[in-house]
Amino acid sequence: MAARLPTFYLSHGAGPWPYMSGVFRQYFAQLELSLRQLPAQLPATPQAILVISGHWEERDFAVMASPMPPMVYDFAGFGEELYRIRYPAPGSPALARRVQSLIQQAGLATHLDGERGFDHGTYAVLAVTHPAADVPVIQLSMRWDYDPEAHWKLGRALAPLRDEGVLILGSGSSYHNLRQFHAKARAREESARFDAWLRQTLLESSPQQRLQRLIEWEKAPSARIAHPQEDHLIPLHVALGAAQEEPACLIYSEEGFMDAITVSSYRFG
After folding, report:
1. Separation in Å, CA 99 to CA 92, 141, 149, 188, 208
2. What is the C-alpha to C-alpha distance for residues 159 and 179, in angstroms, rounded to an integer?
3. Each residue's pLDDT tens digit, 145-202
4. Backbone angles phi, psi at 3, to 5 degrees
5. Chain-centre distance for alpha carbon 45
């Protein structure tokens, strides 16, 4: 049996930033450092990586099944050359079938998707953590309804993969309100308020308390300001579900991200 791998909830940054240079790239210096340090936190090199990205939702839990996944350029306003970048990691149809089986055993609806490609929730992270792209990677969608408990149950279903050499990454952002992003004073205040609640929930609460708080996350201070739509938060529920009662560790926190907001990332287990 492989060494049990931790799970992660990562704030992934904007668009294709690891493929850029200049001033814009410098906004992500602290985030990049934290991502570069991620492999050293693993007890062994993963056999494969499973990403739940904040940029893929389906009717049920769709599993990427292509042996050579294409790219999804799910961003706008960047230079033309960035719409030709490639993260050339192979997929893993065998892992996709294993993931589908685990989800089905949990009584959750799922299907394989042979066409879906990597979106920037995956390659903005892995281009830094695994730049050689030599580890098989698949993505797993969220469900359209963003039901917190269902996504926690999804994580529970995926937990056996951690003992099979599969690294589970929830990729989103602890603050994701693009409309408020440039109202810097308000964004700074509201993101800090929500981030403090999230830190208390993950680091200071009992396993039962943190699960209940995350299921009822809309009660958090500034919850719907930090997440008008919870697509970038729900990957956290999956990562936490896969680790259940194991402790959390803050691995990245930045109060002035993009000169405006507080964001953070966590490891479980």
Report:
1. 11, 12, 19, 39, 26
2. 36
3. 999 999 999 999 999 999 999 999 999 999 998 666 666 678 889 999 999 999 999 9
4. -60, 140
5. 19
Q: The pTM is what?
A: 0.97
Nearest Cα to 34, choosing from 254, 261, 191, 246?
Answer: 254
Percent helix, strand, coil in the chain (nearest 5)?
40, 20, 35
* Calpha distance 135→139 (Å, rounded): 13
Instruction: Please name every residue paired with 139 in a beta bridge, in sequence order, or none if there are none.
Output: 51
- Residue 28 has which token pair? 């992500």
Contact 154, 62 (CB under 8 A): no
What gap in Å lies between CA 194 and CA 15, rounded to an integer?
A: 23
Domains of the chain (ranges plus CATH)?
7-268 (3.40.830.10)
CA pair distance 173, 262, nearest whole angstrom: 10
- Least Cα distance to 62 among 13, 111, 2 occurs for 111
Report the DSSP pairing between strands 48-58 and 166-172: parallel
Three-state SS at 100: helix
Element (H, E) at 171: strand 166-172
Q: What is the mean pLDDT of each run of 10 residues along the chain (269 residues)?
A: 91 95 93 98 98 98 98 94 97 98 98 98 98 98 98 98 98 87 77 96 96 97 96 98 95 89 96
Tell which residue, 50, 42, 106, 33, has the closest CA to residue 239: 50
